[in-house]
Amino acid sequence: MAVPVFCNSCSCEPRKPTPRFSLTNCGHIFCEVCLQKGKKDECLICKTACQTLVLSKEIDPDIQSLFMGVDVLCEKYSKEITQVLEFQEKHRKHLLAYYKQKTAKLEESIKKVTQQMKQMQCMKPPEQTTQLPFSSTSRNPLSMPSRKQNGYSSYLLHSSHPSTSETVESMEVDPVPSPMRKV
């Protein structure tokens, strides 16, 4: 059911002998007779400056929708909304397919790299655990190990001048500072 149109000034409804109706940009409707009685470019109701548009079947569809019944509008817009939803869903599915394909490629790459890593581990000889020269345990964790423990060449043992490492080796380092010592 369409919205009834009537003049906001004299309340007459459109009939065959009645004059045309106009809509103002402030949202009021007037018959041609009342519109001629008022001031030009001024609304008869709210007295603001306004422009008018003659109501006919040729007016803009958005303005025509102001006079349609809600049931007709719902049907019209539900079709448009359905088309929009279908369009958006189609593009969402396309994007999802793209990401699924990209994910599958990445997973395949991960499998290949994992297989290559396993092959490389099989080819590598077993790791031997070797003790580092500084890993020997002694009373003082900061002292250097002797050359005899870590197997340095005998050249250093027989050198006539003490090397830096020999000098450092002979020094004892106290890890705990003395309270009497000045820093």
Describe this protein's structure.
With 183 residues, the chain is mostly helical. Among the domains are: 1-68, Herpes Virus-1 (2-Layer Sandwich), CATH 3.30.40; 69-122. Helices cover 43% and strands 5% of the residues. The chain has helices at residues 32-37, 61-64, 70-123, 147-150, 154-157, 164-170; strands spanning 21-24, 29-31, 52-54. The longest helix has 54 residues, at 70-123. Residues 147-159 have low confidence and may be disordered.
What helical percentage do the residues reach?
A: 40-55%
Which spans have pLDDT < 50 for at least 5 consecutive residues?
A: 147-159
CATH arch. level architecture of one domain: 2-Layer Sandwich
CATH class of one domain: Alpha Beta
Task: Supply database-style keywords.
183 residues, mainly alpha, Herpes Virus-1, 3-stranded antiparallel sheet, 6 helices, 3 strands, 43% helix, 5% strand, zinc
Short summary:
The protein is mainly α.
Topology of this structure?
Layout (H helix, E strand, L loop, with lengths): L20 E4 L4 E3 H6 L14 E3 L6 H4 L5 H54 L23 H4 L3 H4 L6 H7 L13
Antiparallel strand pairs: 1-2, 1-3
